[in-house]
Each structure stands twice: as structure tokens, then as C-alpha cells.
Automatic annotation (TrEMBL):
Underlying gene: frc_10
Organism name: Comamonas testosteroni (Pseudomonas testosteroni)
PANTHER family found in the cross-reference section: SUCCINATE--HYDROXYMETHYLGLUTARATE COA-TRANSFERASE
GO MF, any single term: formyl-CoA transferase activity
Keyword annotations from UniProtKB, A to Z: Transferase
Keyword Transferase among record annotations: yes
Protein EC: 2.8.3.16
Protein name: Formyl-coenzyme A transferase
Pfam families: CoA_transf_3
Gene3D superfamilies: Crotonobetainyl-coa:carnitine coa-transferase, domain 1 (3.40.50.10540), formyl-coa transferase, domain 3 (3.30.1540.10)
Superkingdom classification of source: Bacteria
InterPro entries for the chain: CoA-transferase_III_domain, CoA-Trfase_fam_III, CoA-Trfase_III_dom3_sf, CoA-Trfase_III_dom_1_sf
């Protein structure tokens, strides 16, 4: 578990981010920027971000959900619906490099502090807008929610067992990838501003992000015009890429080429499977997966799943035991990769992007207070 003794500068040191967002996509973007050194000031309404109530569990009345998205920020409460709050936000915008917001389209404009209203006054400002569907078009300005976008974007249609109902992915994947896309957009705009000196609008919508996740199903549709179907844990294009039972815990096999399949068959004493014309090539294995799966499970029936996965990985065959969340977070490699962060009572997931000279750092636990941006270094 990581608790850095020394805090480095970070790749985004000197970048000031005004995080006006709430719920998930925007706050996740702000946390990523903060992890990499940006000075992030989060403005919440007097009652706080809605996710403070999304529990249990709670600590001091604040839900774990909130704690997972609001590290490396300092917090200020403002009511943006009143003139005093609007004026304070204008002052903060003038100091900021980046604004992140996910209000319903038109809300900030109603308050006189929208992107178009502020652009002429603050041409340097990079404005990241996270929305459900964007600002215009047939669904423009409508509110968007992760599960609803999973349904509309086709994600639920290809998730679940082949003979079961459409199923939501068990984490807010659309919200999270929208936060990642928002972060990418902010970094692109910061890079471009270095040339032009001009800010711009970064438009990150849940709908676009949901559709962007459809690989390889969209690619299959574009080429084959066959509507993708649910396939459970199995990959639609390659096999064995699936959860298989063993004599112990189930394992996930991710065999991507013929060499890996031959190694697998040899290791479990089933060399004949690799020579069978039904299974000799990747394309044939995918076509004949219904015949192949029970043959592999029969070969695994007397083997311990965890031991088998370790042995297969050691010889170059991608495989893994199916762990629960507690087991995954306690894995020795999780600690080695510094993917659990501790600051006092706070525990959270670490930054997945590792930079060699300017690594992420963890400076402020959630709920740290702040009344403005920090002074520039050396000021």
C-alpha cells in the first residue's frame, strides 16, 4: 500500500483546475488531473455532491462512493444559483486553466457563466463539458445516466449469457470512460494551448463514450452486417477466450493464437486437440467453440484452477483465476504496482498511469477544505 513520503512536482504542476462537476464522470476527470499534480479546487453546492449519500458504507456521514472520486482536491461550498456564488466562480475562472462541469446544458448559461458567455472574457480557459448526449442533435441537452446509456449504446445487448436477458455491466463503465475521455480532451487542449495561447471547449458525452466501447462488435457489424449477440464470458471472435471450470476454482483462458493453444494442449496432455482440424486454427476454434469447451473442461476436471492458471501463465498462455474484489485488492502484485493508496483513514485505488520522472502523488484526502487556488510555486 502506497503512502509516499515525498511528493513530487507531477506532470501537471502549475495547472489550475476548477471542478464544478458532481456524480462520476467529471469528478473522476478532476481526480486524475489532481493525481498528476494539478491544483484542483472542487466547488460543491451547500448540500454537497449527491454521491455523499450513495451508501452504505459511510464515514462521518459521507459515502464511500464519494471518497472514491474526490481525492487530490480541495473543497469549497458555493451556491451558484445566487449572484454572490456566480461572482465568486467568475473570479475563480479568471485564475483557472481548466473548468470541468457537468451541469444540464443551459444551466450555467442561465446563471450567466456559461462557456460562450465567458469565452471572450477568458480566452485562455479550457472548458470541459461532460454531458449525457451533447448540447444539440435529436437527443441534445437531455440528461444521461450510465445504465441508460449502456442500454441505448448497445452495451447491454451484448452483455450477459447467450440464453439470458440483456445485462448491465457491473460497474459504471460509461461514466468512467467518459471521465477518461474528458481527461484526454483536457490534456489535448492544454497541449494545443501551448502553441496557440487559446482555450477551447472539450465536449465529452456519455453517449459518444458508450458507443466508443463497442469494439469489436461495431467492427463486426460494419463488415458483416450481422447483429452481435450475447456470448456470456466468451469472446465473440476468438476461442478459447472464456471462463472454464476445473477441479477447483474456475479460470479464465485468453488464448489469442495457435502457438498458445498448442502450449495449452501440451500442458494438459491433450496434444490431439491442437491437431484436430476443428481446432487447429484460430478461426476454426471460434467456429467450433461449442465442441471445444467441454473437451477442455474435461481435461481440467482433476486440476486445481489456481495452480493451473499459474502454470499456464509461466509458459506463456494467458490465464487467470477468477478473484473477487477483496482478493484482487489483496493480491501481492496490487501492492507492488502501488494500486492501493493510504492517507490516514482514507484508502483508495492508485493511479494506473505510471510516469518515470513525474509520477502521480497523493496530497489531499477527500473532504480537504480550500478557499481558492494555491499560490504559484515560488510566489
Amino acid at each position: 500500500m502506497h503512502n509516499p513520503a515525498a511528493v513530487g512536482a507531477g506532470a501537471l504542476q502549475g495547472v489550475k483546475v476548477l471542478d464544478l462537476s458532481r456524480i462520476l464522470g467529471g469528478p473522476f476527470c478532476g481526480q486524475i488531473l489532481g493525481d498528476h499534480g494539478a491544483d484542483v479546487l472542487k466547488v460543491e453546492p451547500p448540500q454537497g455532491d449527491d454521491t455523499r449519500t450513495w451508501g452504505p458504507p459511510f464515514r462521518d456521514g459521507v459515502a464511500s462512493y464519494y471518497f472514491g472520486l474526490n481525492r487530490n482536491k480541495r473543497l469549497q461550498f458555493l451556491d451558484l444559483s445566487v449572484p454572490e456564488g456566480q461572482q465568486r466562480v467568475r473570479e475563480l475562472m479568471a485564475q483557472a486553466d481548466v473548468v470541468v462541469e457537468n451541469f444540464k446544458v443551459g444551466t450555467m448559461e442561465k446563471w450567466g457563466i456559461g462557456f460562450e458567455q465567458m469565452r471572450e472574457e477568458l480566452p485562455h480557459l479550457i472548458w470541459c463539458r461532460v454531458t449525457g448526449f451533447g448540447a444539440d442533435g435529436p437527443l441534445g441537452s437531455l440528461p444521461g445516466y450510465d445504465a441508460a446509456i449502456q442500454a441505448m449504446a448497445g452495451i447491454m445487448s451484448i452483455n450477459g449469457e447467450a440464453d439470458g436477458d440483456p445485462l448491465r455491466v457491473g460497474l459504471p463503465v460509461v461514466d468512467m470512460v467518459t471521465g477518461l475521455n474528458a481527461t484526454i480532451g483536457v490534456l489535448l487542449a492544454l497541449h494545443e494551448r501551448g502553441r496557440s495561447g487559446q482555450g477551447q471547449l472539450v465536449d465529452a458525452s456519455l453517449y459518444d463514450s458508450g458507443l466508443s466501447l463497442l469494439h469489436p462488435h461495431a467492427a463486426n457489424w460494419f463488415m458483416g452486417r450481422k447483429v452481435p449477440q450475447r456470448s456470456g464470458n466468451a469472446h465473440p471472435n476468438i476461442y478459447p477466450y472464456d471462463v472454464l471450470s476445473t477441479g477447483g476454482a474456475p479460470i479464465f483462458l485468453a488464448v489469442g493464437n495457435d502457438r498458445q493453444f498448442r502450449l495449452l494442449c501440451s500442458h494438459v496432455g491433450q496434444e490431439g486437440l491442437a491437431q484436430d482440424e476443428r481446432f487447429a486454427t484460430a478461426g476454426q476454434r471460434s467456429v467450433h467453440r461449442a465442441e471445444l469447451k467441454p473437451l477442455l473442461q474435461q481435461a481440467f476436471a482433476l486440476l486445481d484452477g489456481v495452480k493451473l492458471a499459474d502454470e499456464l501463465m509461466a509458459i506463456g498462455v494467458p490465464a487467470a483465476p477468477v478473484l473477487d474484489v477483496a482478493q484482487a485488492l489483496a493480491h501481492p502484485h496490487t501492492a507492488h504496482r502501488e494500486m492501493v493508496v493510504e492517507m490516514g483513514e482514507y484508502q483508495g485505488l492508485g493511479a494506473p498511469v505510471k510516469l518515470s520522472r513525474t509520477p502521480a502523488s497523493y496530497r489531499f484526502a477527500p473532504l480537504s477544505e480550500g478557499q481558492g487556488f494555491l499560490p504559484d510555486a515560488g510566489a
